[in-house]
Amino acid sequence: MKHTQVVVVGADPVGLVTALGLAKAGLDVLVVDTGREASACAPCVHDWSVLPGLDRLGVLEDATQAGFTDPSWCLRVLQTGEHLTFDLGVLAGLTPHPYNLHVEDTALCEVLERHLARHRTKPIERNARLVDLAQDQSGVEIVLETGDGVRRLRTDWVVAADGTSSMVRRLLGLGFRGSTWHDRSVVALVDADFAGRDYAGTTLQVDDRYGAVVHKVDDRRWRYTFDESLTLPEESVGARIPGVLRKVLGSVPFHVLDWHSSRMHQRTSDQYRAGRVLLVGDSAHVANRMIGHSPITAFFDAYRLIEALSAVAGGYADERVLDKYSEGRKRVFLDHALPASAGRKHLISQISDRRQLETELEHYRLASADPEALRELLLFNRELEGDSPLPRGTSSVSVFS
Ligand SMILES: Cc1cc2nc3c(=O)[nH]c(=O)nc-3n(C[C@H](O)[C@H](O)[C@H](O)COP(=O)(O)OP(=O)(O)OC[C@H]3O[C@@H](n4cnc5c(N)ncnc54)[C@H](O)[C@@H]3O)c2cc1C
């Protein structure tokens, strides 16, 4: 049976970021993935707050070249006709990267994979599904189903970055408590001139019927995310999308290139550590998809886990820091990410009462007119970073310590 120090299950950006950080700390890492085809509808905007982490991993420059940066976002309020604009440039001096990074998932994964290959790692196994695991005091035995049959591996640690339906979490018997929204999330990839209709690179469109989040993918393509009731038939989602777009684009021609729909949950795993297995990203927690607090929190999970696991594996800290990782990240999710995501979804698509809308908008009107108020609004995302799991003064080999 082959042995490796860390197996990361899941090769989406969060799994790859974790693998790269651990590899940079000198750990021997193997990434396995089912080889699921990447969706063109996957998130393409990475919040300014996670960019310093990508920089420390040494991938920000390449990731930026694979996409573009954009400091603008706006709030379009259909009921009032308002168009509140915001410029992340107000964060200059507080962060070296006062903008969002727009890069498609596949392009970001390619960059991360290229950097990972420069380290003492095994090549990513793309057609390997984890189907079982068992652990003892000294390690974890995992079972992979591959194109060539079933294979067993022994590893010191497992990182589960295997998404909402995480097989690892289920094998560990961890609960995934919370609730499921009565809405369906729909993402449409659209070829249309949204810029000509004054949409910014990131636009929150506020309306109780046509609320949406719109992201620029490139000069031609835009990602349009909206919710609809689960009572509407799933088989006709695609047929309804043009009607939704027509309402906001009017006579502007458009072409729907692709779309994706999914149920939405707000759930957290009971814990993010079970012995030698650590959970990151959607395997640990999910919020609604209307606004991206889940992806931001997922990147910060990865950064914090890199710190903790590199320190433990390198002998700089004892295993208690992994419990601190688990407790700290769950707190961040429950105290910050979850309420913020629910609040944004409420603002974007759930307020029909005009007076309530006016109250909710006050905050944003102020922020669009006052740089100090805008800074305060934006800096919330740093709360999602949470505290380091390492005791102060711990030396470590991690890029995050
Ligand atoms: C099409 C699409 C649209 C999305 N839209 C939004 C959005 O608008 N807003 C938002 O907040 N979030 C959205 N998300 C979710 C967002 O991408 C995630 O929150 C974020 O990327 C963190 O994901 P993750 O890496 O933890 O899990 P995932 O991105 O789900 O990655 C899990 C990986 O694990 C692999 N895997 C799963 N099971 C196994 C197994 N048993 N063995 C080996 N490998 C396995 C999968 O192949 C996959 O590559 C979207 C996701 C998709 C796919």
UniProtKB/TrEMBL annotation:
Pfam families: FAD_binding_3. Keywords: NAD, Oxidoreductase. It comes from Haloechinothrix salitolerans. Residues 4-332 form the FAD-binding domain. This is NAD(P)/FAD-dependent oxidoreductase. The keyword Oxidoreductase applies. InterPro entries: FAD-bd (IPR002938), FAD/NAD-bd_sf (IPR036188), PheA/TfdB_FAD_monoxygenase (IPR050631).
